[in-house]
Amino acid sequence: MRxxxxxxxxxxxxxxxxxxxxxxxxxxxxxxxxxxxxxxxxLLQGELCGCDIQYVVGSSQSNVxxxxxxxxxxxxVIDRRVGYRVYYRLVPDTRPEYTELLAYxxxxxxxxxxxxxxxxxKQAIQNGxxxxxxAGNPAAVLSSRRKATVR
Length: 151
What we know:
The chain has 8 helices and 3 strands; from the N terminus they run H-H-E-H-H-E-E-H-H-H-H. Strands 1-3-2 form a 3-stranded antiparallel β-sheet. The relative contact order is 0.14. By secondary structure, it is mainly alpha-helical. The N and C termini lie far apart (79 Å). Helix 3 (50-57) packs across helix 6.
């Protein structure tokens, strides 16, 4: 009886380790493209509307959508719908391998392209891009729509 229990525990530990490794493998597959790294860099700033990501990255909607879907499948990004807009954010995960990966990415994504993207995103937000700050504040949405119609 004791022997079978020990074997069961060993099998469980082995598969749990394989699952953890599979998660890390999926993370790296998701990060294996410069466009996806650029999107992750933007999402490190917080939740963003898909159109903001598209604007900053400068790619077509279908291209950005494909990369975001890949990031979702790899377990790095989640989304939510608000009306016709889709907001994306990094998965709130406390596993050490995930938090350490994000900490590393914050340090590593500091090249010219990534800093230019961050600057462009901040400028877009200041100019009233459709970000979470607007979605959470209906007055801001109305205000930005009024500005758009007045211009």
